Amino acid sequence: MPKLTIDGKEVEVADGTNLIQAADQAGIEIPHYCYHPGLTVVGNCRMCLVEVEKAPKLQIACNTRAADGMVVHTKSDRTRTAQKAVLEFLLINHPIDCPVCDQAGECKLQDYYMDYDAEPSRFSLGRKNKKGKAIDIGSDVMLDQERCILCARCTRFFDEVTKTSELAIFQRGDQCRIDHWPDRPIDNNYAGNVVDICPVGALTEKDFRFRMRVWYLHRTPSVCGGCERGCAIDIYQNRGRIYRFKPRQNPAVNSYWMCDEGRHGFPALQSESRLTTPLYQAKDLLLAESWSDALRRAAARITALGQQFGAPAIGAVIGAQATNEEAFALKSLVKDTIGSEQIATLSWSPPGASGDDGLLVRANKNPNTRGLSALGLAPDRLDALSNAVAAGELKMLIVMRADLVKALGEAEFIRRFGALDYLLVLDTDANEIGQMANQLWPIGAYPEIDGSFTNFKGRVQKISAALPPPGQALSALEAIARLGHALDGVERPKTAEAVFAAMAQQEPAFAAMALEALGPHGRDLAQS
Ligand code: SF4
Ligand code: SF4
Ligand code: FES
Q: Residue 184 burial by CB count (10 A; 0-12/13-18/19+): exposed, middle or buried?
């Protein structure tokens, strides 16, 4: 473990740590463009030059390993002169695009210019090189060649991570430019990551361009619900609308990346089909009602069926889109309050959905299949439930985040569950099973709720509400707690933290965990 001194601060780092990382550990920023911790080091931008005592020349921090006894200066006159020179060089041909550039507000050229240079230009505007602007280079990515600083992060990403190598640097000298190979535009499911790692406004996202200035966006760390990988993400929203998902680093799950499918998953979550009010069926129509009427109606039906046929007449199907807390709360309601063991789960992926790609994407499009099994909810109980319906023992189902009609097909659903007396559905959309429900309750989608998902490797990660559910929709935890109260008058925990605490006490797989203590990278299940 080498010990070195950076700007007078002593720091001990792991073997192999470079000077950018070592300085970071000491709370010191070394500006850099081409270095990215998820890619190989190329050392081509020279922005990270620092002074290392006893070295004859300035050294690039990204490609210099911390060594025992090293003394490094990141703010000396020599370092500052080099930083200014590099910025001046990078800006000679940079267009004056900041007012119209989508990267403004999170651009490393702007930031470093203000922090490390702030000198007026010595070059005339008229002599700037002209290169291609707003070039569609495939997928969701637009290229502005004039803004590119040739750091080669994008080319390395496609060479090293996706191994699709669509981009390269063409030409020589000040004519160098990024482009795709002839007739080979970007065509892979991870293209959005190059927009994230481009340190300037050269690569922008077609979907996001000119839609919102980044300084108006609010960031909430959460987890993608697109598949059982559960990539760590940041949700960016403004005034109740999501504008983008970006990957958040989690070494235990997704490194620095996410797939485009997950990245573009949010428009469906704010579509016109979202439910905004509780509905009940009357003469084949779904009519709106208040939550108090909806709760009274459902509780009366559960009580009546329980009295007439016994507790096992009421059951539940929990979809693997549900959080750990939601599954635990509904399981507890059905088992402990109602007294029935009739619980099944559904972990269904649409036919034709993308399969495992060996990188991040998983064929199972449910974020919490593993969480449900960790709660002891076996995946193979659906047959037992339909047999109980056929035997006249099961009369009512509470179905949460599980579109059985879509999964089984309408005819098969009716064959297996058509004899049910009552169907209470908790979901985000007026989906296929919702159309058949006696009652349909609107609940929050995953960017609108707190809780946790357990990914396929058993990593439990916290999800956080970036915005409230639409209209009168509630978090499923609130709806379940209110239903429990309507049944027995007992108050139940409604927040994800409180439900998680109860779950940690009762479920061995979550023992000794707390939602808030999961941290940004989550924790592995205690056992499962
Ligand atoms: S397009 Fe962006 S990431 Fe690619 S080389 Fe240019 S500046 Fe770097
Ligand atoms: S791999 Fe799965 S979890 Fe990760 S971003 Fe894609 S869909 Fe979301
Ligand atoms: S970050 Fe070190 S040379 Fe670019």
A: middle
User: How many angstroms is it from 293 CA to the middle of ligand 2?
Assistant: 39
List pLDDT tens digits, range 8-62: 999 999 999 999 999 999 999 999 999 999 999 999 999 999 999 999 999 999 9
Pocket of ligand 3 (CB under 6 A): 32-35, 43-48, 60, 62
Which atom, in ligand 3's list, is nearest to the CA of 46? 3
Percent of the chain with pLDDT over 70: 100
Three-state secondary structure of 94-131: CCCCHHHCCCCCCCHHHHHHHHHHCCCCCCCHHHCCCC
pLDDT at residue 121, rounded to an integer? 87
Written as one string, the DSSP assignment of 263-277 is HT-SGGGGSTTB--S
Ligand nearest to the CA of 35: 3
Residues of the chain with pLDDT > 90: what percent?
A: 96
- Quote the ligand 2 centre to 260 CA distance (angstroms): 8
Q: Is 178 in the pocket of ligand 1 (CB under 6 A)?
A: yes
3 phi and psi angles, rounded to 5 deg:
-110, 125
How much is the pLDDT for 33? 98
Give the residue, by CA position, lying nearest to ligand 2 atom 1: 361
pLDDT at residue 527 in the model: 62
Asked if residues 242 and 467 have their Cβ atoms less than 8 Å apart, the reply is: yes
Indicate the Cα dihedral angle 366, 371, 376, 377, nearest 10°: -20
Two tokens at 69? 């006894």
361 lines ligand 2 (CB under 6 A): yes
Q: How far is the CA of 148 from the centre of ligand 1 (A)?
A: 5
Q: Is 518 helix (H, G, I), strand (E, B) or coil?
A: helix
Pocket of ligand 2 contains residue 230 by CB under 6 Å: yes
Quote the CA–CA distance of 159 and 163 in Å, as a whole number: 5
Residues 505 and 512: their CA atoms lie apart, in Å, by: 8
Yes or no: say if 204 and 102 are a contact pair by the CB < 8 Å rule: yes
Ligand 2 atom, smallest distance to 259 CA: 6
* Helices within 322-381 (DSSP H only): 324-332, 369-374
User: Which atom of ligand 1 lies closest to the CA of 197?
Assistant: 3
Identity of residue 224: C
Q: pLDDT tens, 301-321?
A: 999 999 999 999 999 999 999
Give the phi and the psi of residue 179 in degrees, each rounded to 5: -160, 170
Sheet order of strands, 285-288 included: 285-288, 279-282, 439-442, 422-427, 396-400, 314-319, 343-346
